[in-house]
């Protein structure tokens, strides 16, 4: 009889601990997945912005057809790569960043374009979009770190392995062009 | 690492508890003096505190914003500011975009409000918006969002309410005591008669407490406030990965001596720097809500290795000789693990941005629009901005003499 | 903003990205501290040589002219002088909110224009040149 008095509360306590730990694991995994979805939101913002940018630039940049086309193509490739996995997607986005940098480098030669109000507004939007992408990746990595710590640290690691919580994958910049932080300044 | 700093508010909780203890002690003494019952005094103190807390909890942010004379703006009003707030919302993982407000004031300051991260607002003076470049503005907004994220707004509101209750109760109690002493003050001693010596001692202790309680509460409050400022700086460096932005913004703030017109003692800790600084007054002592700006800048500039909490802790102890960041916030964080943003491209971005004059016109035009001014473009290139209460039917451009209809 | 002299609502005049408050009734001009700073930005001057600072630190000029309230902080402004031969009496906010020129004083200040070198690096000269530029009453 005494054994029951000890074992039952102990089991209840264990169950409560299990549920709480499990819930916090789920919460962190959701946070991580939300953070990942946020990156996609920002990448979509970038894809939506580029046609506008190219359209505005076209009127001023008569001799840069190839550069502009490269940006448009890279943008279409990047849009196709959405949802194909971290590796392929970041490669495509890297290409786009490279093409954008080349475009922005030649903007230097077009003072009229640089003074255009519409273009200035787009420039601010592009600067912000690049920042947002960087910050959403940063937040995703911070979330992954939190989640991974939880799945690896005792005692939550036991519950994590029992219920099949896998390690989160860090976002790593894979393309050299991407590593050189996209140049969005039009100076 | 964001989470831990929120959950580990041990020292802050100790300080708030200490303030609550001061409030209760005050209530106790008031009860003994005026009602012959300590319980009655305690109940009065608690009811007083409870009502003020309820008002602050549900109406605090709107009261604060309207006292400050803040106007809500939308993305079209100032795209850059809006973008920066959204960038920091993303970097901090805030669940909802905070409302953005502008205060029409030439003084340089900013504050955050909102009882939880779902219902937050950031407000910035028009003067600050004019003075700061993009990186600096980002640092300031990051600091404000950090206050929301670290739950400082909530904490400081509650602490402020405690402080307010203590000050008001002590003020009335001491006036009442003085008044009843003038009138002969026999009511209290009427029943007992004996033990006069002990009563005088209680009276003296009571008077001392009434004088000391507001001072003690204020010192605790200031200590709490200064501590949360440092932690918000640390979080801002982490969100932006660029402590230099905030450091350089703080330097600009330090150089200006304008007081914020709409600030008062109760709202002071909400601002990014103490809104009451005077020319020549040393910025930080025991009775200051904010640490010295020079020190904050020095700490941020010493973060050579990286942007994590651990790096801030290292920088803080190299300047101050002791730590500040809670232990649990440092768990798993190694100095240098979170790299700083590269400075190369961003310095170019600064040059590409609108300059000081353009920024000023952007902001002042926004303020004119908000106040329903009408803009007339004169052919000579000048612009005439006409207030809504202007009565005359026409205006002569003072530059070229052309006549415009209003 | 209300005119400190006649109380009429003032209009804002933006000239070359600098704003002035101008009273259409009495032709008085308010030069705000922030705008003054913008005007003098980029000038290679010692901070202490800025005209506003100099005007503020100079002793109160002796005059029987009526004291006026600062339109920003509503405190009394002090009487100060700008330019020379003759010095023009203006009102300056003690807190440094800005400078007020009565209608006639703008004219007096501008009369000194032709004696000033346009490239002058003196901040008071720059101020006078700017006012002259806005209220083109050149001789």
Summary keywords:
heterotrimer; B: 406 residues; alpha+beta; 4-stranded mixed beta sheet; two-stranded antiparallel ribbon; 8 strands; globular; C: 139 residues; 6-stranded antiparallel beta sheet; 6 strands; 26% helix
> How many β-strand runs of chain C?
6
Count of domain modules of chain C: 1
Average pLDDT for all residues of chain C = 79
Oligomer: heterotrimer
Radius of gyration of chain C: 14 Å
Principal-axes geometry of chain B comes out as globular
**Main interface: chain pair and counts:** A-B, 28 and 26 residues
Helix content of chain C: 25-40%
Describe the model:
- The complex is a heterotrimer of chains A (187), B (406) and C (139).
- Chain A has 187 residues and is mostly helical.
- Chain A has a single domain, classed as de novo design (two linked rop proteins).
- Chain A has helices spanning 2-58, 65-80, 86-107, 111-115, 117-152, 156-162, 176-179.
- In chain A, helix 1 (2-58) packs antiparallel against helix 2.
- Mean pLDDT of chain A is 83; it is low at 174-187.
- Chain B is an alpha+beta fold and 406 residues long.
- In chain B, strand 5 and strand 6 form a beta hairpin.
- Chain B is built from 14 helices and eight strands.
- In chain B, the strands form three sheets. Chain B has a four-stranded mixed beta sheet, sandwiched between helices. Chain B has a two-stranded antiparallel sheet with strand order 5-6. A two-stranded antiparallel ribbon of chain B has the order 7-8.
- Chain B folds into two domains: 1-186 and 217-332, no CATH class; 373-406, no CATH class.
- In chain B, helix 3 crosses helix 7 (152-182).
- Chain B has helices spanning 2-7, 10-34, 38-67, 79-92, 126-131, 134-149, 152-182, 196-240, 243-255, 293-301, 309-320, 327-330, 344-352, 356-370; strands at 70-72, 99-103, 110-113, 121-125, 374-377, 383-386, 394-396, 403-405.
- The model of chain B is unreliable at 1-8, 188-194, 278-284 and 344-351 (pLDDT under 50).
- Chain C is α+β, with helices and mostly antiparallel strands and 139 residues long.
- Chain C is 26% helix and 20% strand.
- Chain C has one domain.
- Chain C is globular and about 35 Å long.
- Chain C has four helices and six strands; from the N terminus they run βββααβββαα.
- The longest helix of chain C has 12 residues, at 123-134.
- Classes of the chains: A mainly alpha (187), B alpha+beta (406), C alpha+beta (139).
